């Protein structure tokens, strides 16, 4: 079967209205969630009808993550399981997108011959054209290359979202940390123009969104153009966004410790709309490992950054990401990580065992430490992170919190799920018409991963 690439697909603005159903499955980070939402807007605008379950959908769209080998395997396992269960059949059009799409491109057709279309994070906007081309010719389509910002210009207006919405402010990453595949899947970093971002946020707020989460792999290095052709900065963007009427809460992720400049800290101090929560991945507490990771900061400069942030915003909660078992990590290196964790006392943390990613510089390094030893260290680290997370939650008992009601509780359909400024989930009783509203609650109970609150 022939493979067609984009230069043979014309991007007509007047694609004929299509018929059929689609289902979107998404893995990975918030940037994928944003892309998946935009794919929904796009497919709906083309005439397709979304279905919440994959069973029997005409088109199944997979928005995938390649950050660790496990994330990648999940997608192929899922496809196998669906086939086995009869969820998909020979007529289902399977379109694999996201970071695995960009990473493996044509190879994917060999790994799973039932896949008809391969696209990447930068070519999501061409998906309806790829589907039409495949339907018309039966030729498989692999299309993963595009300019970083092309997608944003080609997307239809935002659809209706919940009370909180993601807004991608930049695509790609140029940092090239030695372990990370993202620069190779999402490409070099480029920032969206400031006005495009502000317009997108205004549309969301007109649709009832209360909270905006600005997204990028390294938001601190945002350098979009202003309407008069000047280069903006992340701090400047924060002031501009904060001035939009109707915005109740502003979050951003991810901030790299390297470029966390004083003007960003000043914006966090000046702008109460910015939430009391910030995610700053440290990755390791050992300077030797940080150097091998090419992170360009030290454990002490990270400690100083945290101290400055806590001075600017005494209530700020800080979370982090840590990689355990980077090639050659010794027990001394790991002890340095534990020392940092105990110094900073993170409010919460995500930790992962290092996963070798093909094509990254770290994949060339010797990695003599047995997996079992890495797993033991991960366990020790996670116990400690959990201990601090519990302490912070206990400290919230009896406090009054402004929360945004996000929806119905997953465990009990008669209860609501809300989120505090410092990113803790609160379960409360109340009518469904509170969804989308900011309410004030008293924290009455601390559960394992959530809090319970009562309206006051
Ligand atoms: N841009 C963000 C991180 C994006 S990837 C930043 O620089 O902070 C999300 C997290 O996945 C990273 O913070 C890191 O902890 C983890 N990660 C990335 N590559 C990994 C790998 N090869 N193995 C294990 N964890 C990895
Ligand atoms: Fe990966 Fe580093 Fe870029 Fe984060 S900053 S996406 S870890 S290369
Ligand atoms: Fe995964 Fe790509 Fe995000 S690799 S973490 S989906 S940028």
Automatic annotation (TrEMBL):
EC number from the UniProt entry: 2.8.4.3
Domain (MTTase N-terminal): residue spans on this chain: 20-136
Chain positions recorded as [4Fe-4S] cluster 2 binding sites: 173, 177, 180
Cell location: Cytoplasm
An annotated GO cellular component: cytosol
CDD domains per the UniProt record, alphabetical: Radical_SAM (cd01335)
One Gene Ontology molecular-function label: metal ion binding
SMART domains: Elp3
Residue intervals of the TRAM domain: 394-456
Entry keyword Hydrolase: no
Cofactor binding annotation: Binds 2 [4Fe-4S] clusters. One cluster is coordinated with 3 cysteines and an exchangeable S-adenosyl-L-methionine.
Major subcellular site: cytoplasm
Catalyzed reaction equations: N(6)-dimethylallyladenosine(37) in tRNA + (sulfur carrier)-SH + AH2 + 2 S-adenosyl-L-methionine = 2-methylsulfanyl-N(6)-dimethylallyladenosine(37) in tRNA + (sulfur carrier)-H + 5'-deoxyadenosine + L-methionine + A + S-adenosyl-L-homocysteine + 2 H(+)
InterPro entries listed in its UniProt record: Elp3/MiaA/NifB-like_rSAM, Methylthiotransferase, Methylthiotransferase_CS, Methylthiotransferase_N, Methylthiotransferase_N_sf, MiaB_methiolase, rSAM, rSAM_horseshoe
Top-level taxon of the source organism: Bacteria
Function: Catalyzes the methylthiolation of N6-(dimethylallyl)adenosine (i(6)A), leading to the formation of 2-methylthio-N6-(dimethylallyl)adenosine (ms(2)i(6)A) at position 37 in tRNAs that read codons beginning with uridine.
The family this protein is said to belong to: Belongs to the methylthiotransferase family. MiaB subfamily.
Name the record gives this protein: tRNA-2-methylthio-N(6)-dimethylallyladenosine synthase
Classification of source organism: Bacteria, Pseudomonadati, Pseudomonadota, Gammaproteobacteria, Aeromonadales
């Amino acid at each position: 079967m022939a493979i067609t690439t984009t230069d043979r697909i014309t991007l007509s603005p007047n694609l004929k209205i299509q018929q059929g159903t689609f289902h979107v499955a998404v893995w990975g980070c918030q940037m994928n969630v944003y892309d998946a939402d935009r794919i929904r807007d796009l497919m709906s605008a083309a005439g397709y009808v979304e279905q919440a379950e994959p069973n029997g959908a005409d088109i199944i769209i997979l928005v995938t993550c390649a950050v660790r080998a496990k994330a990648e395997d999940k997608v192929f396992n899922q496809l196998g399981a669906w086939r086995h269960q009869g969820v998909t059949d020979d007529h289902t059009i399977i379109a694999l997108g996201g970071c695995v799409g960009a990473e493996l491109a044509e190879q994917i057709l060999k790994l799973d011959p039932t896949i008809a279309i391969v696209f990447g994070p930068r070519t999501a906007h061409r998906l309806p054209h790829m589907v039409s081309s495949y339907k018309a010719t039966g030729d498989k389509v692999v299309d993963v290359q595009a300019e970083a910002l092309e997608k944003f210009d080609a997307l239809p207006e935002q659809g209706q979202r919940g009370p909180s919405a993601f807004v991608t402010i930049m695509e790609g990453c140029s940092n090239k940390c030695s372990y990370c595949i993202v620069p190779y899947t999402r490409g070099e970093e480029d920032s969206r123009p400031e006005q495009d971002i502000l317009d997108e946020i205004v549309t969301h707020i007109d649709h009832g969104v209360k909270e905006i989460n600005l997204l990028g792999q390294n938001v601190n290095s945002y350098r979009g153009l202003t309407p008069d052709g000047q280069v903006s900065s992340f701090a400047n963007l924060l002031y501009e966004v904060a001035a939009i009427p109707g915005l109740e809460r502003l979050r951003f992720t991810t901030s790299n410790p390297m470029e966390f400049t004083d003007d960003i800290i000043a914006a966090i101090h000046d702008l109460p709309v910015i939430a009391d929560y910030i995610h700053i991945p440290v990755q390791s507490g050992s300077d030797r490992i940080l150097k091998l990771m090419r992170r360009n900061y030290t454990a002490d400069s990270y400690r100083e950054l945290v101290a400055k942030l806590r001075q600017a915003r005494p209530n700020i909660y800080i979370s982090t990401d840590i990689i355990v078992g980077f090639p050659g990590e010794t027990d001394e290196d790991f002890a340095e990580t534990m020392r940092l964790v105990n110094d900073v006392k993170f409010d919460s943390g995500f930790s992962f065992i290092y996963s070798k990613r093909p094509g990254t510089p770290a994949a060339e390094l010797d990695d003599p430490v047995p997996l079992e030893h890495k797993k033991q260290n991960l366990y020790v680290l996670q116990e400690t992170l959990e201990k601090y997370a519990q302490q912070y939650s206990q400290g919230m008992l009896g406090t009054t919190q402004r929360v945004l009601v996000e929806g119905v509780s997953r465990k009990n359909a008669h209860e609501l799920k809300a989120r505090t400024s410092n990113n803790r989930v609160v379960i409360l009783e109340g009518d469904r018409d509170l969804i989308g509203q900011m309410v004030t609650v008293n924290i009455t109970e601390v559960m394992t991963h959530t809090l319970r609150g009562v309206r006051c």
